[in-house]
Amino acid sequence: MNAVTASTDDILLKVEHLSMRFGGLMAINDFSFEARRGDITALIGPNGAGKTTVFNCITGFYKPTMGMITLNQKSGKQFLLERLPDFRITREAKVARTFQNIRLFSGLTVLENLLVAQHNKLMRASGYTVLGLLGIGKYSAEAKNAIELARFWLEKANLVDRADDPAGDLPYGAQRRLEIARAMCTGPELLCLDEPAAGLNPRESLVLNEFLRGIRKDADTSILLIEHDMSVVMEISDHVVVLEYGQKIADSTPDEVKNDPRVIAAYLGVEDAEVEEVIAEVEHLQEGENR
Ligand SMILES: Nc1ncnc2c1ncn2[C@@H]1O[C@H](COP(=O)(O)OP(=O)(O)OP(=O)(O)O)[C@@H](O)[C@H]1O
């Protein structure tokens, strides 16, 4: 979907004038962007640009200094995320996330990790009573559903044959996919992934790409992705937003962003005064290509 043509009904997440100050450092400065329903939106930028801080504001880990973050569910319900505590952002607004460093229960099996993710739903079904847990009422039906859902995501993550192994025994790339599968077991409308391809080899990155494309196709979940691995970003994203020093410098399709001189200059670490020079060079190269 093109960045310019989205209607307001398509907007799942709207970030407006977001700012986050840490003491004297303005980590995010008047940053606005939109993520459309059904899209994979990538948030990229050089180290320290503020990407994780934006994620932390969206998911309630930080309360922004200023700005509004609106999540529009498909049901029509609207949530102002900057006003909600993190557990309500997960449970009610249905925003799930993964972290830069893997946070699995490494002593539990792969399947158990996916069931733990559904703990809240199961406890509600038990009515928080022992009788409920013993199978009277809705609990047994919900427990069966939880196992079905875990199986579904095990298959999608290509982990069925490792279901009974401790999560800590999986290769790195498989642990990354398990984390994402675990987040999917909470039924999110928005899945925020913080550098899912970090540390993966090229083959594992390809498997990850397929998995993320599968999520977009099979689940009603949109993805917001922070990623340094451009082979992942350019391959699977519908829309790319670029941050530099806490401010937006580009917001467009992967192809346009890839050729944007300001983005190239930011990644090369060029001083502001030299940006014009880089722009001229890139334009010159592009003219050469088009000839
Ligand atoms: N809790 C905090 N306290 C103080 N400064 C912070 C805090 N969190 C982030 N920062 C600062 O805010 C800036 C943005 O950091 P952030 O981690 O959001 O960048 P990033 O784009 O995610 O970087 P990377 O790609 O290296 O992960 C950095 O200068 C960082 O040191």
TrEMBL record:
SMART domains, A to Z: AAA
Listed Pfam families: ABC_tran (PF00005), BCA_ABC_TP_C (PF12399)
Species in which this protein is naturally found: Rhizobium calliandrae
Highest taxon, organism lineage: Bacteria
Protein name as catalogued: ABC transporter ATP-binding protein
Keywords: Amino-acid transport, ATP-binding, Nucleotide-binding, Transport
SUPFAM superfamilies per the UniProt record, alphabetical: P-loop containing nucleoside triphosphate hydrolases (SSF52540)
Record InterPro entries: AAA+_ATPase, ABC_AA/LPS_Transport, ABC_transporter-like_ATP-bd, BCA_ABC_TP_C, P-loop_NTPase
GO MF, one example: ATP binding
ABC transporter domain ranges (all copies): 13-270
Family the UniProt entry places it in: Belongs to the ABC transporter superfamily.
Keyword Nucleotide-binding attributed: yes
